[in-house]
What does this fold into?
Amino acid sequence: MTTNEHARSGANAGTATGRNDAARTEPDWTDQVTDLVVGAVDSVRDKTTGPILMVARGLVYGVVALLVGLLALGLLTVAIVRALSLLPGPQWTTYAVAGAVLCLGGLLAWSKRGPVDG
It folds into this structure.
């Protein structure tokens, strides 16, 4: 028997070296079940943890932006007071102008406050 006749006869069918074509084309049910479970878990995860992650990122970025803004505001105040101190005249005028600007800012914030519940 030649090699071609041996292969056509199906003598190696089902062995590790010569699987038949039907076994190769038939889908493996374990792969299908695994894909189904993984798909379900991914869907649930996307619906639950996705929004939570977006909220957490928003909070983190908001806190970082607030801290950077407060730091920039402080540095801007120092720069303005330093620039005012370079003007000719007595030093107390620099502090008086800076104090007046800060008092006006405080009065503006005070006027925007809401009613106190109590």
